[in-house]
Hints:
This protein is of the alpha/beta class. The protein has 16 helices and 20 strands. The protein folds into 2 domains: about 240 residues, Rossmann fold (3-Layer(aba) Sandwich), CATH 3.40.50; about 110 residues, Roll (Nuclear Transport Factor 2, Chain: A). An 8-stranded mixed sheet has the order 3-2-1-4-5-6-10-13, sandwiched between helices.
Amino acid sequence: MKSTSKTKEIQTNSSSNLLVLGATGQVGKLVANNLRRSEANFSVGTRRKANLEELTDRFGASRFIDLDDPRTFDQALKGITGIFLITGYTVDMLVQSKSLIDAAKRNGVNHIVHLGAFTRDHDAYATVFAWHQMIETYLRDSGIAWTNLHPNMFMQSFLSVWSLKGGEYSAYTSKAIGFTALEDVAEAAAVILMEGPEKHNGKDYWFSADALTPHQVAETLTAATGRKFTAAVRKAEGFQNDAAQPGSAFEPAYAKGGFELFRQVEDGRMAYIGSVRDDTKKLLGREPLLLNGWAKLHANELLEAAGMAAPPATEVAPNDGIPSTLASFVKANNDRDADSVTACFSKDAVVYDDGQIMRGAEEIRQWIAELFRKFQYVVAPTNVRELTNGAILTATITGNFPGARVSLDYNCRTLGGKIEVMVIQPTPVAK
């Protein structure tokens, strides 16, 4: 059960019919979630026919498209006006992108939004960066309206690519790296798709909000999670070696590209990777997430990735009472009182709701008011786990939203009696 806060008025092209690729991955899924919240007209594409029904249930519409089989393109692109183009990180991305761009032109697609890399300097010779530049050059010459997104290192990489084992961040360069939050890029991509080529044709947008050295990263993760993180700087070759391990998702050419990237950052040829250049505020009307804020929202995931225990929790049955701030939050929701809900949060609080981020009291008030406008619902607490600096409230929500009933965890950090951070997620299913 989600809504959207209007920090920026989006001029949606009502005649658009969008196609989002990669919806089973992190980026495409968040782009699709943002489009769904904005009630845009879109489909998600998948190469797995078995996933079509599930994706239709989740997003409203799906289409079969196999990027390795251009014969599937014409049917998938019928009636489509705009595409979110993302491919896997293999050399196949070159022929996949070229073939899709050709098919898009043949089928009258008006706009392609391409997710590339942070190629701020045209002289970028790391493998994956060069691949993206080739795709962008072909797209620019295609005659189709285009928009290129250039993210620097995703903060989500701390949960997958980079090792945090035992609280030690393994970095492959001693120099600063620029970071961006996947949530910011996905929301921006959705806005660009909805506003269309009239506003965004021929534009390159950059996403690098926070540039930090390895030791600054460790200090930031420590402050955000309350657990000690350190940094160990390894040689660039370490990335290629780690990526070549059995079970790795990286093909050899991509692993080589990672090695080239970190080596060239270290020797200064790609020093711009450690710079800040960010268009989030231009596109969304708000400041981008910095690593400290992102890490607070993903603190439990970071600790799990590091194999570090989260702060101890104490189970409390709801009839034994719940922390007063959360009790006020539940009561205000059930009273449908947006001002009282907002009063439970600090003025600089952050709420994270399945990829949607509300920052500050005004955005939180708009978010909850929009929920009240769209849905009638009741919050019934079922469990509380008290933490050293907050609590996790589990509640059953029933109402007139799709599915009619859902169990949610409200993971809250409190400060001075107010909620500082709230992360709302579906309650994990017991195994």
